[in-house]
Structures are given as structure tokens and as C-alpha cells.
Write a structure and sequence with these properties.
By secondary structure, this protein is α/β, with parallel strands linked by helices. It has helices at 15-22, 61-69, 91-101, 123-138; strands at 2-9, 27-33, 47-53, 77-84, 105-113.
Length: 150
């Protein structure tokens, strides 16, 4: 079993994150509030998730401050989840760029609108995101893409 850390900024606490983490079978997750001012030892983890809940333009200052205070990373796998009442266009790409600049290897990302009901139309896509990320983390081979015929 692999170890992961979910670094989060959320206004509604850890409950949703705990439910999210329970969906993974290949990783046991710990949690870190990025607004706490403390820096976790990321060398203990196989993957780091960055979960941000925001509704304004640009990336939240606590996320940027947290990344600025981290030492350079060397290819630690990371996944991103951008959630909010209205996820700003391009926010996930901006978050990926900020995390990559620090030296993380972004392996997956997803944007999710929290106001949608439990059975929202995008639920299938979100569950596919979790399933694909879990498969990646388990080290199981994925179905190769078809190769072009020459």
C-alpha cells in the first residue's frame, strides 16, 4: 500500500476529503491544511494531492504561499482537484503550472463544482478521474493506446 498526502484549502472542512480518500484502494492518505503555516515532510509520501476550494479569479494566496515555502521537489507525483461553487476557467491549468514549477510531476487533475447535487451529470467523469488515478497509483498496467498502422 502506498502513502499519500492531501494538502487542502477548503472552507467546509475535511469531511468531503475523507470521503474522497476512502475511494482509493491503492493509497492510504494523510491530510494537511495548507493554511496552517506548517510544512509537512513530503519525502514520506508516494503522491501528494492538492485540493483547493475557491471561487475567485486567480489561485488562492494560501496555496501560492504554501508552494513558495516548500523546498524544490524532484518529480514527486501530484494530483490536483479544483473545487468550488464556480470553478474559474483555466484555474486547473494555473494550479498545474504552479505545482510543476515547484518540481512536482502532475499525473492527474479534475475540476468539480461543489454546488451540484450528489448525482450531478459530471459524477461519471469524477468517478473516472478517481478510478484512473487509483489505477495509476496501484502500478497496474493500463490498456495501451492503439498504435498507428504504418
Amino acid at each position: 500500500m502506498k502513502n499519500g498526502l492531501i494538502c487542502y484549502l477548503t472552507t467546509d472542512g475535511r469531511d468531503r476529503l475523507v470521503r474522497l480518500a476512502r475511494q482509493f484502494t491503492a493509497v492510504t492518505f494523510a491530510f494537511h491544511d495548507m493554511s496552517s503555516g506548517e510544512l509537512p515532510d513530503l519525502s514520506r509520501y508516494d503522491i501528494v494531492g492538492f485540493v483547493v476550494q475557491h471561487d475567485g479569479p486567480g489561485l488562492p494566496a494560501p496555496l501560492l504561499d504554501f508552494l513558495d515555502r516548500l523546498p524544490p521537489m524532484r518529480g514527486i507525483n501530484a494530483f490536483l482537484l479544483d473545487a468550488g461553487l464556480e470553478v474559474p476557467s483555466g484555474a486547473l491549468l494555473s494550479m498545474a503550472a504552479a505545482v510543476k514549477r515547484k518540481g512536482f510531476r502532475v499525473v492527474s487533475g479534475h475540476s468539480l463544482t461543489l454546488e451540484e447535487p450528489v448525482r450531478f451529470p459530471g459524477a461519471t467523469l469524477f468517478l473516472r478521474f478517481i478510478e484512473n488515478l487509483d489505477t495509476f497509483l496501484s502500478g497496474e498496467p493500463t490498456t495501451p493506446l492503439p498504435q498507428p498502422v504504418h
